[in-house]
Amino acid sequence: MSIQNIDSPVTTGIYIDGEVREAAGGKTYAIHNPARPDELVGHAASATVEDVDAAMKAAHAAFPAWAALSYAERAAMLMKIADELVADQEELDYRSRLFCREHGKVIKETQLEMTRLGDRFRLSASYAERLAEDEHLPGPPFDTIITRQPRGVATLIVPWNWPLSILGAKLPQALIAGNTVVIKPSHNSALAPSMTIHKIASLLPPGVVNVLTGSASEIGDALVTHPLTRFINFTGSVGVGRHVMKMAADNITPVTLELGGNDAAIICEDAELDAGAFMRMYMGTFMSSGQICMALKRLYVHRSRYDEVVDGLTEVCERMVIGDGLLPETNMGPVNNEKQHRIIKGMIEQARAAGQDVRECGQVPDEELYAKGYFQKPTLVFDPDQSLDIVREEQFGPALPIMPYDTDDEVVAKANDSNFGLCSSVWTKDRDRATSIARRLEAGYTYLNAHGPAAQDGRGPFGGFKQSGIGRNLGYEGVLQFQEYHSISSQPGWLL
Ligand code: NAP
Ligand code: MG
Question: In this predicted structure, what is the pLDDT of residue 5?
Answer without folding.
Answer: 58
